[in-house]
Amino acid sequence: MTNEEQGLNELIKIRIDKLKHLKSIGKDPFQIEKVYVTHYSRQIKDEFEQLEGSGVTVAGRIMAKRGHGKTSFINIQDSCGQIQSYVRQDRIGKEDYELFTTYDIGDILEVRGEVFRTKKGEISVRADKIRLLTKSIQILPEKWHGLKDHDLRYRQRYTDLIVNPEVKETFVVRSKIIKAIREYLDNKGYLEVETPILGTIAGGANARPFVTHHNTLDIDMYLRIANELFLKRLIIGGFDKVYEMGRMFRNEGMSIKHNPEFTSIELYRAYADYNDMMEITENIIAYAAEKALGTTKINYQGQNLDLTPPWDRMTMIDACKKYADVDFNHIKTDDEAIEIGKDLGIEIKPEMKRGHIISEVFEKYVEKHLVQPIFITQYPVEVSPLAKRNPDNPELTNRFEAFINTWEVANAFSELNDPLDQRKRFMEQLAQREAGDEEAHMLDEDFLNALEVGLPPTGGLGIGVDRVIMLLTDSPSIRDVLLFPTMKPMSEENRD
Per-residue confidence at 25, pLDDT binned at 50, 70, 90? Predict the structure, then answer.
Protein backbone atom coordinates (compact mmCIF):
# COMPACT_ATOMS: atom_id res chain seq x y z
CA MET A 1 0.00 0.00 0.00
CA THR A 2 1.37 3.39 -0.98
CA ASN A 3 1.59 6.33 1.41
CA GLU A 4 -1.19 8.04 -0.59
CA GLU A 5 -3.47 5.02 -0.24
CA GLN A 6 -2.71 4.75 3.47
CA GLY A 7 -3.50 8.42 3.93
CA LEU A 8 -6.81 8.04 2.08
CA ASN A 9 -7.77 5.07 4.24
CA GLU A 10 -7.07 7.09 7.38
CA LEU A 11 -9.24 9.96 6.12
CA ILE A 12 -12.06 7.54 5.33
CA LYS A 13 -11.76 6.07 8.84
CA ILE A 14 -12.05 9.56 10.32
CA ARG A 15 -15.26 10.13 8.36
CA ILE A 16 -16.68 6.80 9.48
CA ASP A 17 -15.89 7.71 13.07
CA LYS A 18 -17.72 11.04 12.58
CA LEU A 19 -20.75 9.15 11.30
CA LYS A 20 -20.67 6.78 14.27
CA HIS A 21 -20.55 9.77 16.61
CA LEU A 22 -23.53 11.39 14.88
CA LYS A 23 -25.51 8.18 15.26
CA SER A 24 -24.52 7.89 18.93
CA ILE A 25 -25.94 11.33 19.73
CA GLY A 26 -29.17 10.77 17.80
CA LYS A 27 -28.14 12.76 14.71
CA ASP A 28 -28.05 9.92 12.19
CA PRO A 29 -28.38 11.67 8.80
CA PHE A 30 -29.53 8.47 7.12
CA GLN A 31 -32.76 8.53 9.11
CA ILE A 32 -33.93 11.59 7.15
CA GLU A 33 -36.32 10.67 4.35
CA LYS A 34 -37.56 13.88 2.78
CA VAL A 35 -36.55 17.49 2.28
CA TYR A 36 -38.85 20.26 1.06
CA VAL A 37 -36.53 22.07 -1.34
CA THR A 38 -38.07 25.39 -2.40
CA HIS A 39 -35.42 26.74 -4.78
CA TYR A 40 -32.37 25.71 -6.78
CA SER A 41 -29.09 27.59 -7.17
CA ARG A 42 -29.69 28.83 -10.70
CA GLN A 43 -33.21 29.97 -9.88
CA ILE A 44 -31.99 32.01 -6.89
CA LYS A 45 -29.35 33.72 -9.03
CA ASP A 46 -31.66 34.31 -11.99
CA GLU A 47 -34.48 35.67 -9.82
CA PHE A 48 -32.40 37.46 -7.20
CA GLU A 49 -34.26 40.76 -7.45
CA GLN A 50 -37.53 39.03 -6.59
CA LEU A 51 -36.03 36.70 -3.98
CA GLU A 52 -33.71 39.08 -2.11
CA GLY A 53 -34.64 38.99 1.56
CA SER A 54 -36.91 35.97 1.10
CA GLY A 55 -36.58 32.65 2.89
CA VAL A 56 -35.52 29.64 0.83
CA THR A 57 -34.58 26.01 1.39
CA VAL A 58 -31.79 24.57 -0.72
CA ALA A 59 -30.10 21.19 -0.63
CA GLY A 60 -26.91 19.92 -2.14
CA ARG A 61 -23.36 18.74 -1.69
CA ILE A 62 -20.60 20.72 0.04
CA MET A 63 -17.99 21.48 -2.62
CA ALA A 64 -15.98 24.11 -0.75
CA LYS A 65 -15.73 25.15 2.86
CA ARG A 66 -13.83 27.97 4.47
CA GLY A 67 -14.20 29.69 7.77
CA HIS A 68 -12.68 31.40 10.74
CA GLY A 69 -13.90 31.23 14.30
CA LYS A 70 -17.66 31.54 14.48
CA THR A 71 -18.36 32.28 10.80
CA SER A 72 -17.97 30.13 7.68
CA PHE A 73 -18.76 30.07 3.99
CA ILE A 74 -19.68 26.92 2.07
CA ASN A 75 -20.47 26.27 -1.57
CA ILE A 76 -23.48 24.01 -2.06
CA GLN A 77 -23.82 22.18 -5.39
CA ASP A 78 -27.24 21.06 -6.56
CA SER A 79 -28.42 19.76 -9.93
CA CYS A 80 -28.35 23.27 -11.43
CA GLY A 81 -25.03 24.61 -10.18
CA GLN A 82 -23.56 26.05 -7.00
CA ILE A 83 -24.59 28.68 -4.51
CA GLN A 84 -22.76 30.08 -1.52
CA SER A 85 -24.13 29.89 2.00
CA TYR A 86 -23.00 32.15 4.86
CA VAL A 87 -23.06 30.33 8.18
CA ARG A 88 -22.74 32.06 11.58
CA GLN A 89 -22.81 30.51 15.03
CA ASP A 90 -24.98 33.25 16.49
CA ARG A 91 -27.60 32.59 13.80
CA ILE A 92 -27.83 28.79 13.74
CA GLY A 93 -26.90 28.15 17.37
CA LYS A 94 -23.74 26.99 19.10
CA GLU A 95 -24.57 23.27 19.13
CA ASP A 96 -25.50 23.13 15.45
CA TYR A 97 -22.49 25.25 14.53
CA GLU A 98 -20.12 22.92 16.35
CA LEU A 99 -21.61 19.98 14.45
CA PHE A 100 -21.40 21.96 11.21
CA THR A 101 -17.64 22.46 11.67
CA THR A 102 -17.21 18.66 11.54
CA TYR A 103 -18.94 18.32 8.15
CA ASP A 104 -16.73 17.43 5.19
CA ILE A 105 -16.45 18.21 1.51
CA GLY A 106 -18.90 15.87 -0.20
CA ASP A 107 -21.48 15.82 2.59
CA ILE A 108 -25.04 16.63 1.53
CA LEU A 109 -26.84 19.38 3.47
CA GLU A 110 -30.16 21.13 3.74
CA VAL A 111 -29.80 24.89 4.21
CA ARG A 112 -32.69 27.13 5.19
CA GLY A 113 -32.13 30.84 5.17
CA GLU A 114 -32.46 34.25 3.60
CA VAL A 115 -31.29 35.27 0.13
CA PHE A 116 -28.83 38.17 0.16
CA ARG A 117 -25.80 39.58 -1.62
CA THR A 118 -22.45 39.71 0.19
CA LYS A 119 -20.24 42.79 0.33
CA LYS A 120 -18.19 41.23 -2.47
CA GLY A 121 -21.35 41.00 -4.58
CA GLU A 122 -21.92 37.24 -4.44
CA ILE A 123 -25.52 36.04 -4.26
CA SER A 124 -25.77 33.79 -1.21
CA VAL A 125 -28.06 32.22 1.37
CA ARG A 126 -27.64 33.40 4.96
CA ALA A 127 -28.20 30.19 6.92
CA ASP A 128 -30.80 30.04 9.70
CA LYS A 129 -30.86 26.25 9.87
CA ILE A 130 -28.45 23.57 8.60
CA ARG A 131 -29.18 19.86 8.58
CA LEU A 132 -26.88 17.05 7.50
CA LEU A 133 -28.73 14.76 5.09
CA THR A 134 -25.99 12.38 3.95
CA LYS A 135 -22.52 11.74 5.31
CA SER A 136 -20.02 11.18 2.49
CA ILE A 137 -17.51 8.50 3.44
CA GLN A 138 -15.37 8.61 0.30
CA ILE A 139 -12.97 11.47 -0.45
CA LEU A 140 -13.77 13.51 -3.54
CA PRO A 141 -10.70 14.07 -5.72
CA GLU A 142 -9.41 17.62 -5.84
CA LYS A 143 -8.53 17.32 -9.52
CA TRP A 144 -10.41 15.15 -11.95
CA HIS A 145 -8.95 15.73 -15.38
CA GLY A 146 -6.33 14.58 -17.85
CA LEU A 147 -5.73 11.34 -19.70
CA LYS A 148 -4.55 9.62 -16.55
CA ASP A 149 -8.00 9.82 -15.01
CA HIS A 150 -10.21 9.14 -18.03
CA ASP A 151 -10.86 5.49 -17.24
CA LEU A 152 -11.68 6.32 -13.63
CA ARG A 153 -14.05 9.06 -14.76
CA TYR A 154 -15.95 6.59 -16.94
CA ARG A 155 -16.00 3.92 -14.23
CA GLN A 156 -17.14 6.32 -11.54
CA ARG A 157 -19.42 8.57 -13.56
CA TYR A 158 -21.19 9.62 -10.36
CA THR A 159 -17.95 11.18 -9.10
CA ASP A 160 -17.20 12.67 -12.50
CA LEU A 161 -20.59 14.41 -12.51
CA ILE A 162 -19.99 15.81 -9.03
CA VAL A 163 -16.48 17.12 -9.57
CA ASN A 164 -16.93 18.10 -13.23
CA PRO A 165 -20.52 19.40 -13.33
CA GLU A 166 -19.97 20.67 -16.89
CA VAL A 167 -20.11 17.01 -17.94
CA LYS A 168 -23.82 17.14 -17.14
CA GLU A 169 -24.32 19.53 -20.05
CA THR A 170 -23.29 16.83 -22.51
CA PHE A 171 -26.07 14.60 -21.25
CA VAL A 172 -28.57 17.45 -21.16
CA VAL A 173 -27.79 18.04 -24.85
CA ARG A 174 -27.99 14.28 -25.48
CA SER A 175 -31.51 14.28 -24.06
CA LYS A 176 -32.46 17.25 -26.26
CA ILE A 177 -31.11 15.50 -29.38
CA ILE A 178 -33.02 12.30 -28.67
CA LYS A 179 -36.17 14.27 -27.93
CA ALA A 180 -35.74 16.23 -31.19
CA ILE A 181 -35.34 13.07 -33.27
CA ARG A 182 -38.53 11.64 -31.82
CA GLU A 183 -40.32 14.97 -32.24
CA TYR A 184 -39.32 15.19 -35.90
CA LEU A 185 -40.56 11.69 -36.69
CA ASP A 186 -43.73 12.02 -34.63
CA ASN A 187 -44.56 15.22 -36.51
CA LYS A 188 -44.06 13.34 -39.79
CA GLY A 189 -46.59 10.70 -38.80
CA TYR A 190 -44.22 7.89 -37.80
CA LEU A 191 -45.33 5.49 -35.08
CA GLU A 192 -42.82 4.62 -32.37
CA VAL A 193 -42.82 0.89 -31.65
CA GLU A 194 -40.91 -1.67 -29.59
CA THR A 195 -39.41 -4.90 -30.92
CA PRO A 196 -37.61 -7.75 -29.13
CA ILE A 197 -34.13 -7.28 -27.71
CA LEU A 198 -33.73 -11.05 -27.20
CA GLY A 199 -34.23 -13.26 -30.23
CA THR A 200 -33.50 -16.70 -31.59
CA ILE A 201 -31.81 -15.17 -34.65
CA ALA A 202 -29.45 -12.18 -34.82
CA GLY A 203 -30.35 -10.46 -38.07
CA GLY A 204 -30.58 -7.11 -39.78
CA ALA A 205 -26.84 -6.36 -39.90
CA ASN A 206 -23.44 -7.92 -40.47
CA ALA A 207 -22.17 -8.14 -36.91
CA ARG A 208 -21.13 -10.63 -34.25
CA PRO A 209 -23.87 -11.03 -31.62
CA PHE A 210 -23.79 -11.63 -27.90
CA VAL A 211 -25.06 -15.13 -27.11
CA THR A 212 -27.02 -16.15 -24.03
CA HIS A 213 -29.09 -19.19 -23.07
CA HIS A 214 -32.75 -19.46 -22.15
CA ASN A 215 -32.97 -22.16 -19.50
CA THR A 216 -36.70 -22.93 -19.72
CA LEU A 217 -36.72 -23.30 -23.51
CA ASP A 218 -33.17 -24.74 -23.47
CA ILE A 219 -32.14 -22.71 -26.50
CA ASP A 220 -29.44 -20.18 -27.28
CA MET A 221 -30.67 -16.65 -27.80
CA TYR A 222 -29.03 -13.44 -29.04
CA LEU A 223 -29.08 -9.82 -28.02
CA ARG A 224 -30.22 -7.88 -31.05
CA ILE A 225 -27.62 -6.44 -33.39
CA ALA A 226 -30.34 -4.52 -35.26
CA ASN A 227 -34.12 -4.27 -35.23
CA GLU A 228 -34.54 -4.11 -38.99
CA LEU A 229 -36.22 -7.42 -39.69
CA PHE A 230 -38.91 -6.93 -37.05
CA LEU A 231 -39.69 -3.41 -38.23
CA LYS A 232 -40.07 -4.65 -41.81
CA ARG A 233 -42.54 -7.25 -40.53
CA LEU A 234 -44.64 -4.35 -39.24
CA ILE A 235 -44.63 -2.70 -42.66
CA ILE A 236 -45.78 -6.02 -44.10
CA GLY A 237 -48.50 -6.08 -41.45
CA GLY A 238 -49.91 -2.74 -42.60
CA PHE A 239 -48.13 0.04 -40.73
CA ASP A 240 -46.85 2.58 -43.25
CA LYS A 241 -44.38 4.52 -41.05
CA VAL A 242 -42.64 3.06 -38.01
CA TYR A 243 -39.51 3.75 -36.00
CA GLU A 244 -37.73 2.45 -32.95
CA MET A 245 -34.92 4.04 -30.97
CA GLY A 246 -33.06 1.84 -28.52
CA ARG A 247 -30.01 -0.15 -27.58
CA MET A 248 -28.26 -2.52 -29.96
CA PHE A 249 -25.54 -4.97 -28.95
CA ARG A 250 -22.56 -6.08 -31.00
CA ASN A 251 -19.79 -8.32 -29.69
CA GLU A 252 -17.04 -6.53 -31.54
CA GLY A 253 -14.02 -4.32 -30.97
CA MET A 254 -14.08 -1.18 -28.85
CA SER A 255 -12.76 2.22 -29.89
CA ILE A 256 -13.54 5.92 -29.61
CA LYS A 257 -16.46 5.24 -32.00
CA HIS A 258 -17.55 1.79 -30.81
CA ASN A 259 -19.16 0.54 -27.61
CA PRO A 260 -20.61 -2.98 -27.34
CA GLU A 261 -24.03 -1.51 -26.56
CA PHE A 262 -25.09 1.64 -28.34
CA THR A 263 -28.17 3.65 -29.26
CA SER A 264 -29.52 3.46 -32.77
CA ILE A 265 -32.72 4.47 -34.48
CA GLU A 266 -34.25 2.63 -37.41
CA LEU A 267 -37.25 3.81 -39.36
CA TYR A 268 -39.22 2.38 -42.27
CA ARG A 269 -41.67 3.99 -44.65
CA ALA A 270 -43.86 2.14 -47.12
CA TYR A 271 -43.92 3.35 -50.74
CA ALA A 272 -40.64 5.25 -50.30
CA ASP A 273 -37.12 4.67 -51.63
CA TYR A 274 -33.55 5.42 -50.61
CA ASN A 275 -33.74 8.94 -52.05
CA ASP A 276 -36.52 9.68 -49.56
CA MET A 277 -34.30 8.26 -46.83
CA MET A 278 -31.49 10.64 -47.83
CA GLU A 279 -33.83 13.57 -47.46
CA ILE A 280 -35.05 12.46 -44.05
CA THR A 281 -31.48 11.73 -42.85
CA GLU A 282 -30.14 15.21 -43.58
CA ASN A 283 -33.30 16.85 -42.27
CA ILE A 284 -33.49 14.85 -39.05
CA ILE A 285 -29.85 15.56 -38.13
CA ALA A 286 -30.19 19.25 -39.04
CA TYR A 287 -33.40 19.45 -36.99
CA ALA A 288 -31.70 17.87 -33.97
CA ALA A 289 -28.78 20.30 -34.27
CA GLU A 290 -31.12 23.29 -34.43
CA LYS A 291 -33.13 22.09 -31.45
CA ALA A 292 -30.12 21.24 -29.29
CA LEU A 293 -27.64 23.93 -30.35
CA GLY A 294 -29.61 26.52 -32.28
CA THR A 295 -27.48 26.07 -35.42
CA THR A 296 -26.58 23.58 -38.14
CA LYS A 297 -23.02 24.86 -38.36
CA ILE A 298 -20.83 23.18 -35.76
CA ASN A 299 -17.19 22.78 -34.87
CA TYR A 300 -16.02 19.30 -34.00
CA GLN A 301 -12.54 19.06 -32.48
CA GLY A 302 -11.38 22.06 -34.50
CA GLN A 303 -13.10 21.03 -37.77
CA ASN A 304 -15.94 23.22 -39.04
CA LEU A 305 -18.88 21.14 -40.28
CA ASP A 306 -21.99 22.39 -42.06
CA LEU A 307 -24.99 20.11 -41.50
CA THR A 308 -27.34 22.32 -43.51
CA PRO A 309 -29.30 20.33 -46.15
CA PRO A 310 -28.91 19.37 -48.91
CA TRP A 311 -25.78 17.26 -48.47
CA ASP A 312 -23.48 16.15 -51.29
CA ARG A 313 -24.02 12.79 -53.02
CA MET A 314 -21.51 10.48 -54.71
CA THR A 315 -21.57 6.84 -55.79
CA MET A 316 -19.13 4.43 -54.15
CA ILE A 317 -17.48 3.67 -57.50
CA ASP A 318 -17.04 7.37 -58.28
CA ALA A 319 -15.59 7.91 -54.80
CA CYS A 320 -13.06 5.11 -55.37
CA LYS A 321 -12.15 6.68 -58.69
CA LYS A 322 -11.68 10.11 -57.10
CA TYR A 323 -9.75 9.16 -53.98
CA ALA A 324 -8.13 5.78 -54.80
CA ASP A 325 -7.60 6.39 -58.53
CA VAL A 326 -9.31 3.08 -59.38
CA ASP A 327 -12.21 2.97 -61.84
CA PHE A 328 -14.23 -0.14 -61.09
CA ASN A 329 -16.46 0.63 -64.07
CA HIS A 330 -13.65 -0.88 -66.17
CA ILE A 331 -12.98 -3.81 -63.83
CA LYS A 332 -15.67 -6.32 -64.66
CA THR A 333 -14.57 -9.67 -63.21
CA ASP A 334 -13.84 -10.96 -59.72
CA ASP A 335 -10.31 -11.99 -60.73
CA GLU A 336 -9.48 -8.52 -62.06
CA ALA A 337 -10.83 -6.90 -58.91
CA ILE A 338 -8.85 -9.25 -56.67
CA GLU A 339 -5.62 -8.40 -58.47
CA ILE A 340 -6.34 -4.70 -58.03
CA GLY A 341 -7.08 -5.37 -54.39
CA LYS A 342 -3.73 -7.09 -53.92
CA ASP A 343 -1.94 -4.17 -55.56
CA LEU A 344 -3.68 -1.79 -53.13
CA GLY A 345 -2.79 -3.83 -50.06
CA ILE A 346 -6.24 -5.27 -49.43
CA GLU A 347 -6.29 -8.49 -47.40
CA ILE A 348 -7.81 -11.05 -49.76
CA LYS A 349 -10.10 -13.73 -48.32
CA PRO A 350 -11.27 -16.82 -50.21
CA GLU A 351 -14.93 -15.77 -50.41
CA MET A 352 -14.18 -12.30 -51.83
CA LYS A 353 -15.76 -11.09 -55.04
CA ARG A 354 -15.58 -7.84 -57.00
CA GLY A 355 -18.11 -6.15 -54.74
CA HIS A 356 -16.12 -7.00 -51.62
CA ILE A 357 -12.99 -5.47 -53.16
CA ILE A 358 -14.85 -2.26 -54.04
CA SER A 359 -16.07 -2.01 -50.45
CA GLU A 360 -12.61 -2.68 -48.98
CA VAL A 361 -10.92 -0.13 -51.26
CA PHE A 362 -13.56 2.41 -50.29
CA GLU A 363 -13.04 1.77 -46.59
CA LYS A 364 -9.25 1.95 -46.79
CA TYR A 365 -8.74 4.82 -49.23
CA VAL A 366 -11.93 6.90 -49.34
CA GLU A 367 -13.59 7.19 -45.94
CA LYS A 368 -10.78 9.29 -44.47
CA HIS A 369 -11.57 12.05 -47.00
CA LEU A 370 -15.30 12.29 -46.22
CA VAL A 371 -15.28 15.19 -43.75
CA GLN A 372 -18.26 17.33 -44.75
CA PRO A 373 -21.67 15.59 -44.75
CA ILE A 374 -22.06 13.37 -47.81
CA PHE A 375 -24.13 10.43 -49.00
CA ILE A 376 -22.20 7.59 -50.61
CA THR A 377 -24.62 5.62 -52.80
CA GLN A 378 -24.94 2.41 -54.82
CA TYR A 379 -23.12 -0.18 -52.73
CA PRO A 380 -22.21 -3.58 -54.20
CA VAL A 381 -24.82 -6.30 -53.73
CA GLU A 382 -22.25 -8.57 -52.04
CA VAL A 383 -22.09 -6.26 -49.01
CA SER A 384 -25.77 -5.27 -49.05
CA PRO A 385 -27.81 -8.43 -48.45
CA LEU A 386 -31.03 -6.59 -47.53
CA ALA A 387 -31.00 -3.83 -50.17
CA LYS A 388 -32.86 -3.69 -53.48
CA ARG A 389 -30.76 -4.00 -56.63
CA ASN A 390 -30.25 -0.97 -58.83
CA PRO A 391 -32.40 -1.58 -61.94
CA ASP A 392 -29.75 -0.07 -64.23
CA ASN A 393 -26.91 -2.13 -62.74
CA PRO A 394 -28.02 -5.23 -60.78
CA GLU A 395 -24.52 -5.68 -59.36
CA LEU A 396 -25.14 -2.58 -57.26
CA THR A 397 -27.90 -1.72 -54.80
CA ASN A 398 -29.96 1.36 -54.09
CA ARG A 399 -28.23 1.87 -50.78
CA PHE A 400 -26.38 4.75 -49.16
CA GLU A 401 -24.32 5.47 -46.12
CA ALA A 402 -24.06 8.99 -44.72
CA PHE A 403 -20.62 10.19 -43.63
CA ILE A 404 -19.70 13.14 -41.42
CA ASN A 405 -16.19 13.78 -40.12
CA THR A 406 -15.09 10.55 -41.93
CA TRP A 407 -17.55 8.53 -39.81
CA GLU A 408 -20.48 6.52 -41.04
CA VAL A 409 -23.49 7.93 -39.19
CA ALA A 410 -26.37 6.43 -41.18
CA ASN A 411 -27.12 3.46 -43.41
CA ALA A 412 -30.20 3.13 -45.60
CA PHE A 413 -31.63 1.56 -48.70
CA SER A 414 -34.58 0.80 -50.83
CA GLU A 415 -35.52 -2.41 -49.06
CA LEU A 416 -35.23 -5.70 -50.87
CA ASN A 417 -38.78 -7.07 -51.10
CA ASP A 418 -38.24 -9.91 -53.60
CA PRO A 419 -38.46 -13.06 -51.41
CA LEU A 420 -36.66 -15.23 -53.98
CA ASP A 421 -33.72 -12.83 -54.28
CA GLN A 422 -33.66 -12.43 -50.50
CA ARG A 423 -33.48 -16.20 -49.98
CA LYS A 424 -30.62 -16.45 -52.47
CA ARG A 425 -28.69 -13.71 -50.65
CA PHE A 426 -29.36 -15.29 -47.26
CA MET A 427 -27.97 -18.57 -48.60
CA GLU A 428 -24.84 -16.75 -49.80
CA GLN A 429 -24.52 -15.18 -46.36
CA LEU A 430 -25.00 -18.60 -44.77
CA ALA A 431 -22.18 -19.99 -46.90
CA GLN A 432 -19.93 -17.18 -45.74
CA ARG A 433 -20.94 -17.91 -42.15
CA GLU A 434 -20.13 -21.59 -42.54
CA ALA A 435 -16.77 -20.56 -44.01
CA GLY A 436 -15.97 -18.79 -40.75
CA ASP A 437 -17.46 -15.29 -41.12
CA GLU A 438 -19.12 -14.79 -37.71
CA GLU A 439 -20.62 -11.47 -38.87
CA ALA A 440 -22.51 -12.91 -41.85
CA HIS A 441 -26.31 -13.03 -41.69
CA MET A 442 -28.15 -15.97 -40.23
CA LEU A 443 -30.96 -17.58 -42.20
CA ASP A 444 -34.30 -16.20 -40.97
CA GLU A 445 -37.06 -18.41 -42.36
CA ASP A 446 -39.85 -16.49 -40.65
CA PHE A 447 -38.67 -13.24 -42.23
CA LEU A 448 -38.61 -14.95 -45.64
CA ASN A 449 -42.15 -16.14 -44.98
CA ALA A 450 -43.14 -12.57 -44.15
CA LEU A 451 -41.62 -11.36 -47.43
CA GLU A 452 -43.63 -13.99 -49.27
CA VAL A 453 -46.77 -12.49 -47.72
CA GLY A 454 -45.65 -9.26 -49.39
CA LEU A 455 -43.56 -6.22 -48.44
CA PRO A 456 -44.56 -3.07 -50.35
CA PRO A 457 -41.81 -0.91 -51.86
CA THR A 458 -40.16 0.47 -48.72
CA GLY A 459 -37.39 2.82 -47.71
CA GLY A 460 -35.47 2.03 -44.52
CA LEU A 461 -32.92 3.98 -42.52
CA GLY A 462 -30.67 3.44 -39.51
CA ILE A 463 -28.84 6.28 -37.72
CA GLY A 464 -26.08 5.86 -35.15
CA VAL A 465 -27.47 8.17 -32.49
CA ASP A 466 -24.36 8.12 -30.28
CA ARG A 467 -22.14 9.28 -33.14
CA VAL A 468 -24.50 12.14 -33.96
CA ILE A 469 -24.43 13.13 -30.29
CA MET A 470 -20.62 13.00 -30.29
CA LEU A 471 -20.58 15.46 -33.19
CA LEU A 472 -23.13 17.82 -31.67
CA THR A 473 -21.46 17.86 -28.23
CA ASP A 474 -17.87 18.04 -29.54
CA SER A 475 -17.04 14.84 -27.65
CA PRO A 476 -13.85 13.02 -28.70
CA SER A 477 -14.98 9.56 -27.56
CA ILE A 478 -18.25 7.64 -27.56
CA ARG A 479 -17.59 7.04 -23.86
CA ASP A 480 -18.06 10.77 -23.30
CA VAL A 481 -21.69 10.56 -24.45
CA LEU A 482 -22.60 7.35 -22.62
CA LEU A 483 -23.30 7.75 -18.93
CA PHE A 484 -22.03 4.26 -18.19
CA PRO A 485 -19.83 2.95 -21.03
CA THR A 486 -18.67 -0.65 -21.07
CA MET A 487 -15.45 -1.04 -19.11
CA LYS A 488 -13.21 -3.94 -18.24
CA PRO A 489 -13.55 -4.75 -14.52
CA MET A 490 -10.78 -3.31 -12.39
CA SER A 491 -10.02 -6.71 -10.90
CA GLU A 492 -9.35 -8.11 -14.38
CA GLU A 493 -7.04 -5.22 -15.23
CA ASN A 494 -5.14 -5.69 -11.98
CA ARG A 495 -4.40 -9.26 -13.01
CA ASP A 496 -2.90 -8.19 -16.35
Answer: very high
Q: In what order do the strands lie in the sheet with 219-223?
A: 198-199, 219-223, 211-214
Q: Which residues pair with 57 in a beta bridge?
A: 112
At 57, which CATH number? 2.40.50.140
The residue range of the domain holding 484 is 167-311+372-495
How many domains does the structure of the chain reveal? 2
Instruction: With CA atoms as reference, report the closest residue to 157 among 142, 169, 168, 172.
Output: 168
Q: What are the Cα distances from residue 80, in Å, to 34, 38, 163, 477, 480?
A: 19, 13, 13, 25, 20
In this structure, the answer to whether residues 234 and 101 fall within a common structural domain is no
Average pLDDT, rounded, for the chain: 93
In a domain? residue 234: yes
Is residue 196 included in any domain, yes or no?
yes
Examine residue 81 and state whether it is found in any structural domain, yes or no. Answer: yes
Percent of the chain with pLDDT over 90: 84
pLDDT band at 111 (very low <50, low <70, confident <90, very high): very high
481 close to 488: Cβ distance less than 8 angstroms: no
> Same domain, yes or no, for 59 and 186?
no
- Same domain, residue pair 175 and 126: no
Last residue of a domain, one of 109, 134, 159: 134
* 380 pLDDT more than 50: yes
